[in-house]
Amino acid sequence: AQSVTQLDSQVPVFEEAPVELRCNYSSSVSVYLFWYVQYPNQGLQLLLKYLSGSTLVKGINGFEAEFNKSQTSFHLRKPSVHISDTAEYFCAVSEETSGSRLTFGEGTQLTVNP
Amino acid sequence: KAGVTQTPRYLIKTRGQQVTLSCSPISGHRSVSWYQQTPGQGLQFLFEYFSETQRNKGNFPGRFSGRQFSNSRSEMNVSTLELGDSALYLCASSLVPGAHNEQFFGPGTRLTVL
Q1: Which candidate among A14, A34, A35, B36 keeps its CA 20 to 30 Å from the CA of A63?
Q2: B27 to chain A, minimum CA–CA distance in Å?
Q3: Which residue positions in chain B have pLDDT lower than 70?
Q4: Residues in B lying within 8 Å of A, measured between beta carbons
């Protein structure tokens, strides 16, 4: 069975600073990887996904992530954050044999301070 | 195109009661999944429906059930409510089932059990 670990539960940064949110996964089969963002009192919004091909994936709002198969990681990065990026971020994995089922990490609360 | 809608948005029940939550997927989407989100357990997969059939089920007791109608709308039911069932219940839809398919989440139903 797959599992996802988000290495930081909270990440505080200053506005315009770069940020990296770390995600590691474990699975015995090939996986697809996703990052979602959740703003207060809202559902989840997809930031980006890795299905195959280039290991560097670009998403919405200036975010990108790099898939590293040897390190089983899928870290999320943004070169310069804004106050509006304050939210909770979830890394998720799915397996071909599990249909649409997503397994989520515990989440990372990103707080951007002025 | 309208997004995933969930009703009601907020619900307060007492222990022992039962509750039914509703989810209308994006028009044309035929796969619906449900997730429970709590501070302690995070986001956990409940079940997935496609063509009115449950395709996948998470590790939840039998008190949690669901169904899907011919128009792809889905409902989930929780019987004999417990305090621990207090959570945000999220519904997600996709065109068809598949680990690589993007899922679109609704805003959730916040259930409070007193």
Answers
A1: B36
A2: 18
A3: 1
A4: 4, 31, 33, 35, 42-45, 48, 55-56, 58, 90, 92, 94, 97-108
- pLDDT of B18: 98
Instruction: Give φ, ψ of A13 to 5 degrees.
Output: -140, 165
pLDDT of residue B90: 97
Give the pLDDT score at B73.
98
Tell me which chain B residues have a C-beta less than 8 angstroms from the C-beta of A45.
105
The model's pLDDT over A46-78, given as tens digits with 9 standing for 90+, comes to: 999 999 888 999 999 999 999 999 999 999 999
Closest chain A C-alpha to B14 CA, distance in angstroms: 22
Candidate from A97, A98, A104 with C-beta closest to B42: A104
- In total, chain B counts a number of residues equal to 114
Confidence of residue A91 (pLDDT cuts 50, 70, 90): very high
Q: Which residue has the tokens 């128009």?
A: B71
Give the three-class secondary structure for A84. Answer: helix
Residues A67, B95, B110: CA angle, nearest 5 degrees? 85
Residue B35: strand pairing partners: B45, B90
CA A91 vs CA A34, A78, A88, A106, B43: distances in Å:
6, 15, 10, 8, 11
